[in-house]
Amino acid sequence: MEITGIFTAIIIGLIIGALGRLVVPGKQNIPIWLTLLIGVLAAILGTIVAGALGVDDTSGVDWIELIIQVVFAAIGVAITAGAYGRRRV
């Protein structure tokens, strides 16, 4: 992973976090900054996993990598919303 890939993952991660939040059903009682942080981490992790699977460098849009990133973001938002919600009650 090159430095440009990390910056791209961070920028895309902000969008991925919002998409991950939309995919998870119900209301998530977590702040938006935490959702965006989860998105950035999911984008970086998704890029690493896509590279390990060999689907990170395709011609055009890397749809498989994008799907992997959104899935990681949705899982992260769901886990964090469950833990954050219990802690605040």
Please describe what this structure looks like.
78% of the residues lie in helices and 0% in strands. The chain has helices spanning 3-23, 32-53, 63-88. It is elongated, with a radius of gyration of 13 Å. The N and C termini lie far apart (40 Å). It is an all-alpha fold and 89 residues long. The model has no long low-confidence stretch (mean pLDDT 82). It has one domain. Helix 1 (3-23) packs across helix 3 (63-88) and helix 2 runs antiparallel to helix 3 (63-88).
Domain tally: 1
Structural class: mainly alpha
Estimated helix fraction: over 70%
- Mean pLDDT across the residues is 82
Terminus-to-terminus distance = 40 Å
Radius of gyration: 13 Å
Global shape? elongated
Biggest beta sheet attributes = none
| Helix count from the secondary structure assignment | 3
Order of helices and strands: HHH
Strand content: under 5%
- Write down how many β-strands occur, each being a DSSP E stretch of 2 or more residues: 0
Q: Could you list the spans in which at least 5 consecutive residues all have pLDDT below 50?
A: none
